[in-house]
Design goal:
The chain has 13 helices and 28 strands. By secondary structure, it is α/β, with parallel strands linked by helices. The protein has two domains: about 260 residues, Phosphoenolpyruvate Carboxykinase, domain 1, CATH 3.40.449.10; about 220 residues, Alpha-Beta Complex (Phosphoenolpyruvate Carboxykinase, domain 3), CATH 3.90.228.20. The strands form six sheets. Strands 11, 12, 13, 14, 15, 19, 20, 21 and 24 form a nine-stranded mixed beta sheet that branches. An eight-stranded mixed beta sheet has the order 1-6-7-8-10-9-4-5, with helices on both faces. Strands 2-3-17-18-16 form a five-stranded mixed beta sheet.
Length: about 550
């Protein structure tokens, strides 16, 4: 299957968006900021960052995200509650409506961008937005063309139409409600309406890449951050929200490849994006200095509470939403890989915030265990984070990014396993680590959160090879290999059972968590390799 635009020719629509009389293409950052401020859609923070409010939706609406069922997707997509099918006829009706809506606007903002820092896999993107700050988001998050260097490169091309004011009629268009985000692989188009939350733009393209790269390019697409050490060693960091992915990958001693989305080809690891989209709830300069300093002119702050002066962000407040965000181009961070690429990984970290206090602070995984924990994508929510949560709640998100993967999770797990085996066969084995940034000495409410300094020390020890000559022992519930010592980390905290006051209480809780893992994995057993299924808890 090929996705080049030459293969798909459609009848021209009567709504020619490129012929809009006031199409503002590729405006500068300052022009987009000025347009936002002049129309009272936002204002500047004391740092120079642009502050906007995305309105009713302050996060993604996963139940309103659809994929058109067609010849490309019908047999390949893992249909269900995450990948919801949409008919071609309903899509055509909504596309016509959104193009008519765009044609009726006084101004339409347009941006040329691309995804995939490895130019061999580049996908061009045409972004059309209703608001100037949406276009600024596209400038920040996607890769920015650099003139003649790639002018003649043959690539796929996708279009995004993001018009919050265009509403669906559920009775007519087959949507759940008035907002929608719909991916059409045949037309290579994403239409977004009824919501101004910019994350729908970013995750729409990531979902596209999670389909195209594995199926057509033999590239493992990943929801992870990546950095490179002084020796050229690449590390990958997987983790759900609150696990420390952004914090731990932003290391002053290592260069950042990217914050969130990457591809792993036969030759290298490369960023899929050109910027960062970070949560800023409780942000502080002391804990995350690089992100804090990146929030300057050109950055876009979303749904941020302000202090009394009306211009200073108050990152501790969550009056509007817990999901406060900032987007900024990656060059706002000093210590980056400017080509956004690195060599094949030497270390992989699966980060989990285990509120049960069961998992070790660091453990080494076999290839089969790596595939199991990758497919599982575990972390835990704690009491008070959401209504109705009164005790730790296990959360599983396949491949650490379930809402964005169109294929069955085992497809990505199999690709990871193959790459681990190939690296070992080439004499360059990849270490895979499970790191618990959550609780120790008991579950949430009894134990204490793992100190960040200790987690950083364990990550450093893994990266530098300081754990290579250390004796490991196997814990009894998950079969994980735990180091008996680690530089700059107390030996007493390395085995979680030793940190609990009552070992029987630990055993009971560990069995409970093991059962949750096993029950979650049952949905994958039919497709997963038997050795992978057997690599879970005992």
């Amino acid at each position: 299957m090929c996705y080049t635009s030459e293969l798909y020719r459609f009848k021209p629509t009567k709504y020619k968006i490129m012929q809009h009389p006031n199409l503002r293409s590729n405006l500068s950052v300052s022009a987009l900021v000025e347009a936002t401020v002049k129309t009272d859609q936002g204002h500047l923070a004391d740092t120079g960052a642009l502050i906007v409010n995305t309105g009713k939706f302050t996060g993604r609406s996963p139940k309103d995200r659809y994929i058109v069922e067609d010849d490309i997707t019908r047999a390949a997509v893992d249909w269900g509650d995450i990948n919801i099918p949409f008919t071609q006829a309903s899509y055509d009706a909504l596309e016509t409506k959104i193009l008519a809506y765009a044609a009726d606007r006084d101004v339409v903002y347009h941006r040329e961008a691309y995804a995939c820092a490895s130019h061999k896999y580049r996908i061009n993107i045409q972004v059309y937005t209703e608001q100037p700050w949406q276009n600024l988001f596209a400038y920040n998050m996607f890769l920015r063309p650099d003139g003649e260097a790639h002018k003649n490169l043959q690539t796929d091309e996708w279009k995004i139409y993001a018009f919050p004011g265009c509403l669906a009629d559920p009775a007519v268009h087959g949507t759940r409600q008035k907002n929608f985000s719909i991916i059409n692989f045949t037309k290579q188009t994403i239409i977004i309406g009824g919501t101004a939350y910019t994350g729908e733009i970013k995750k729409g393209i990531f979902s596209v890449l999670n389909f195209v790269l594995p199926t057509e390019r033999d590239v493992l697409s990943m929801h992870c951050s990546a950095n490179v050490g002084t020796r050229g060693d690449t590390a990958l960091f997987f983790g759900l929200s609150g696990t420390g992915k952004t914090t731990l990958s932003n290391d002053p001693d290592r260069r950042l490849i990217g914050d969130d989305e990457h591809g792993w080809s036969q030759a290298n690891v490369f960023n899929l994006e050109g910027g960062c989209y970070a949560k800023v709830i409780d942000l502080s300069e002391s804990k995350e200095p690089q992100i804090y300093k990146a929030i300057r002119y050109g950055a876009l702050l979303e749904n941020i509470d302000l202090k009394e002066d009306g211009h200073t962000p108050d990152y501790a407040k969550s009056t509007i939403t817990q999901n406060t965000r900032v987007s900024y181009p990656i060059h706002h961070i000093d210590n980056i890989m400017y080509n956004s690429r690195g060599d094949l990984p030497r270390n992989i970290f699966f980060l989990t915030c285990d509120a049960f206090g069961v998992l070790p602070p660091i453990s080494r995984l076999t290839p089969e265990q790596a595939m199991y924990h990758f497919i599982s994508g575990y972390t835990a929510k704690i009491a008070g984070t959401e209504a109705g949560i009164n005790e730790p709640l296990a959360t599983f998100s396949a491949c650490f990014g379930a809402p964005f993967i169109p294929l069955h999770p085992t497809k990505y797990g199999d690709m990871l396993g193959r790459k681990l085996k190939e690296a070992a066969a080439d004499g360059n084995p990849i270490n895979v680590w499970l790191v618990n940034t959550g609780w120790s000495g008991g579950a949430y409410g009894t134990g204490a959160r793992m100190e960040l300094t200790y987690t950083r020390a364990m990550i450093k020890a893994a990266l530098t090879g300081a754990l290579n000559g250390v004796e490991f022992h196997e814990e009894p519930f998950f079969g994980l290999s735990i180091p008996r010592r680690c530089p700059d980390v107390p030996n007493a905290i390395l085995d979680p059972r030793d940190t609990w006051r009552n070992e029987e209480d630990y055993d009971t809780t560990a069995k409970k968590l093991a059962d949750l893992f096993n029950n979650n994995f049952k949905v994958f057993d039919a497709e997963a390799d038997a050795l992978v299924s057997a690599a879970g808890p005992r």
